[in-house]
Amino acid sequence: GRADAIHLYIKALLPYLGTSDVGIELVVLQNDVFRNRYLNFVLQIFNTFKLILKIRRDDIILFTDPLSVNLLASLFISNKKYTIFYHYETDPFYYRFLPSLSYKKVLNNLDGLICISNFSLTQLSDIGVSSDNSKVVPSAVDHELFKPTASRLFQFDYILSIGSEEPRKNM
Length: 171
Known about the structure:
The protein has 171 residues and is α/β, with parallel strands linked by helices. Helix content is 25%, strand content 10%. A 4-stranded parallel beta sheet has the order 1-2-3-4.
């Protein structure tokens, strides 16, 4: 599975999605098990069909990777469906093979999008995706890992950022 910031974001978000009368089942689709990207692409297609068959009528679906082929399953199910939207660079490559379908069309077909930042929300509007059903849920500090301390290492206020200065990082 993923071991990046997006993985941590999803892991932190999941406990807040359920309520006492709603259960959450996390289904992890292993889409990258081969060293060959074409085999992994075929695996993604297979997993997409497997996902469509696994969904129950009353399930609400949250796609955690909007760039995966698995998001195309949203076109074949009538359930409520959402995705987490990180940032937009270009349409995923497989849309070149689907001439009557666009990434914008798939995103507009969803019931809602969870954007990780105001920048990603702006990107949705820029590519023509309605932001009516979009919500920004920014990531936050894990207070189990990062705690205020009484000792001062420096005699001045400081901010440490280890991220890049790309606009999508919201510096």
